[in-house]
UniProtKB/TrEMBL annotation:
Residues 227-675 form the Glycosyl hydrolase family domain. It comes from the Bacteria. Gene3D superfamilies: 2.70.98.10, alpha-1,2-mannosidase (1.20.1050.60), alpha-1,2-mannosidases domains (1.20.1610.10), GH92 mannosidase domain (3.30.2080.10). InterPro entries: 6-hairpin_glycosidase_sf (IPR008928), GH-type_carb-bd (IPR014718), GH92_N (IPR041371), Glyco_hydro_92 (IPR012939), PNGase (IPR050883). This is Glycoside hydrolase. Pfam families: Glyco_hydro_92, Glyco_hydro_92N. Signal peptide: none annotated. One of its GO terms (molecular function) is carbohydrate binding. One of its GO terms (cellular component) is cytosol. Residues 34-221 form the Glycosyl hydrolase family 92 N-terminal domain.
């Protein structure tokens, strides 16, 4: 539930150096890494953050309170799963760890007559235009003996915190507008506006000997102070100080989870990117049991589902494989959101209101639910889930789709047709064949999104992309999609054009590119790399046209050149782990086709990889694999062994480049023979399409 990190106010998640930017290279906001403190509830790699999160800033200071908000350079940073540390320019060594619902800070001060730890409950959001969050209401209470509590209502959500500070001999006071409240024990605010907001919070202050440590423990809850206190007691136990205990527990949980994916071989840099990608894949969504502020009963509450249009393709299938209990909890939470709030969210933040990213996409939870049904988690009431899946299809853009068979933005037509297909599968499995037939009829509406004259989508508005990259999404009837484009050759030629085969190199835009430069780039109708949602699946379209060798070339190039170990080592926003999950799957030689109980097969980036799924293990092993470097060190004149020559599954020949998700989840051994030249493997056996089921 809790994430914590240094806070600079920069975009996109509050820690960094850059301003908000959507075109070209980002513009620097600061010329150094710096922080004004450490905040909680940070997002992970999303673009649409603005004012959300970064709440409860904790700042160790050796300056007067008047200087709160100043930023200091960061030195000697260390980051591992569950731990962050840096030294501020003031000489204070700052360490943070988190538990499920707690954060523990440890500050080591230089010798100082008047050291301070300041907790600011008024801050939220980012230091960019329109990026600041102002609490609607707030209450802070100093309870003495190193204890305090507070609640702030941010974006309609009551966030409560229970605070313990180990600072023997220090004074404990409230402050308001950077002035101490002498003798006061409680502050209450109501109807706060941007024009009336003044910062407020708590301060702990006193002399510090050189090397003295101060521990700050914060328990959080969305259901009041008492639950926040219980969360703190449960995770920190009776041991004081608690930092090492909480850190060890969190480190062990991370080790257990990331240990579910193992690879052998690969260069040091490639293994570093792989393990980092796996970690990033599992940071979000946040799952907080019994913490919903909107319904009173118990059960999982998932937020930071930002953004569903990224994570449903790659991240949710990864969580389903290696953390199935978490996956089920996320889906149960989505069903409950639909029950309580009236719709499946496209994105779901720790915020109240109708802003659920519905303009970006439609009915994506249906895809994740269809995948889950194929794997049959027992705790979900599937009849009840189907009720909500069907009802949600008629909301938002779904009503127009039902009446007219097509909606704009045109990508929503694809979303809704696909969601009808996914829901039909669940209905048929539950023996509601009449409903399934009706839904299947509507699912054929994907064809209405395309122009038969061009084989591309109709002209429309598009979110983070254009007509070309959205035209190569994987629909549920790719055989008919390819036929609509004019057959295999025409479809492959279109894909080759999109991926730039035979095209001259282009110059990448720099900082603040001119509109004319950007228009020229967009007019290329070219694959931009993996920097937005639809491009994650486009390379795999080649599989359906009998050219898995082309998929291999594009995916291998992306793994080699677009990901690196340094800052900026991702080709685009990670979007809550959607992009990192793509990297994990692609490195294993697999790609989940969400909603179809299907995996596509490609040459892996490692000699051997293994997924632990429950008590089973699915192994991807190779013969003929050759290690290749990546990134700036990736210049290698020897052809990579990136093409599958033949394959076996559990010792039996596999002639198609696909597997069912059930095959993967029940464990087994996939052996891929690799070579430096394309082969005829899998060209004649295509991944399944809906129309195949009705072929004579």
């Amino acid at each position: 539930m809790v994430s914590a990190c240094a806070y600079s106010g920069a975009y996109p998640t509050g820690y960094g150096r850059y301003k908000k930017g959507t075109e070209g290279l980002p513009e620097e906001m600061f010329d150094r890494l710096q922080a004004s403190g450490f905040t909680h509830f940070q997002q992970s790699g999303t673009g649409a953050i603005r004012k959300y999160y970064n709440y409860v800033r904790v700042t160790p200071m050796v300056q007067p309170l008047d200087e709160l908000g100043q930023s200091w350079p960061l030195h000697d940073e260390v980051a591992t799963p569950g731990y962050y540390a840096a030294t501020l320019d003031t000489g204070v060594r700052s360490e943070i760890t988190v538990g499920e619902k707690v954060a523990v800070h440890r500050y080591t001060f230089p010798e100082q007559r008047s050291a301070r730890v300041v907790i600011d409950l008024s801050i939220g959001g980012l230091s960019i235009d329109l990026g600041r969050t102002v609490p609607l209401r707030a209450q802070v209470e100093s309870m003495g003996y190193g204890c305090a509590q507070g609640t702030v209502v941010m974006e309609g959500v009551p966030l409560s915190v229970y605070i313990e500070v180990d600072s023997p001999g220090w004074r404990q006071m409230l402050w308001y507008d950077r002035r101490l409240v002498d003798g006061g024990t409680r502050l209450d605010f109501d109807s706060i506006r941007h024009t009336t907001l003044r910062p407020f919070g708590l301060i702990f202050m006193g002399p510090a000997a050189a090397g003295q440590t101060i521990e700050v423990r914060l328990g959080f809850s969305l259901r009041g102070h008492e639950q926040a206190r219980k969360n703190l007691e449960r995770e920190c136990g009776q041991t004081r100080p608690a930092f090492d205990t909480v850190h060890a527990d969190t480190r062990d949980r991370w080790r257990d989870t990331v240990g579910k994916v193992q690879v052998e071989g690969g260069t040091t840099a490639r293994r570093t990117v792989m393990s980092t990608a796996l970690y990033h894949s599992l940071i979000k969504p946040c799952v907080a049991d019994d913490e919903s502020p909107f319904w009173p009963t118990s059960g999982p509450y998932a937020f930071d589902i930002c953004t569903m249009w990224d994570i449903y393709k790659t991240q949710l299938p990864l969580i389903a494989a290696i953390a199935p209990e978490r996956h089920t909890a996320i889906l149960e939470s989505l069903i409950r959101v639909c029950e309580e709030e009236g719709n499946f969210p496209i994105g779901y933040r720790m915020a109240r209101g109708a802003d659920r990213f519905f303009r970006q996409a439609s009915a994506l939870a249906h895809t994740a639910l269809a995948d889950a049904y194929a794997l049959r988690p027992q705790s979900i009431d599937w009849s009840w889930a189907l009720v909500h899946m069907v009802d949600d299809l008629r909301r938002m853009y779904g009503e127009d789709f039902f009446e007219h068979g097509v909606v704009h933005p045109i990508t929503h037509t694809l979303d809704l047709a696909y969601a009808h297909h996914c829901t039909a599968q669940v209905a048929r499995a539950l023996n509601d064949h009449r409903l399934a037939d009706d839904l299947a009829d509507l699912s054929r509406g994907w064809i209405n999104a395309f122009d038969p004259a061009t084989g591309l989508l109709l002209d429309s508005s598009f979110y983070e992309g254009g007509k070309w990259n959205y035209s190569f999404r994987l629909v549920h009837d790719m055989a008919a999609r390819i036929a609509l484009a004019g057959g295999d050759k025409t479809f492959i030629d279109m894909l080759d054009q999109f991926f730039g085969y035979g095209a001259a190199p282009v110059t990448q835009p720099g900082v603040r590119p001119l509109p004319a430069e950007m228009r020229h780039g967009f007019a290329l109708n070219r694959f931009e790399g993996l920097n937005n949602e639809p491009d994650m699946e486009a390379p795999w379209s080649y599989h359906y046209a009998g050219r898995p060798d082309r998929t291999a070339e594009v995916v291998n190039a992306a793994l080699t050149w677009q990901f690196g170990t340094g800052r900026g080592g991702l080709p685009g926003n990670d979007d809550s782990g959607g992009l990192s999950s793509w990297y994990v799957w692609a490195s294993l030689g697999l790609f989940p086709v969400a909603g179809q109980n299907l995996f596509l097969i490609n040459a892996p980036a490692f000699e051997r990889g293994a997924l632990t799924i429950g008590d089973q293990e699915f192994v991807v092993e190779t013969s003929g694999h050759r290690e290749t470097p990546i990134g700036a060190d990736g210049i290698d004149r020897t052809p990579p062994t990136q093409y599958v020559q033949s394959a076996t599954l559990n010792g039996k020949a596999l002639h198609g480049a696909h597997l069912s998700a059930a095959d993967v989840h029940k464990g087994g051994r996939l052996h891929l023979k690799l070579g430096p030249e394309p082969s005829a493997w899998a060209q004649g056996v295509r991944p399944p399409s809906v129309s195949d089921l009705h072929a004579p």
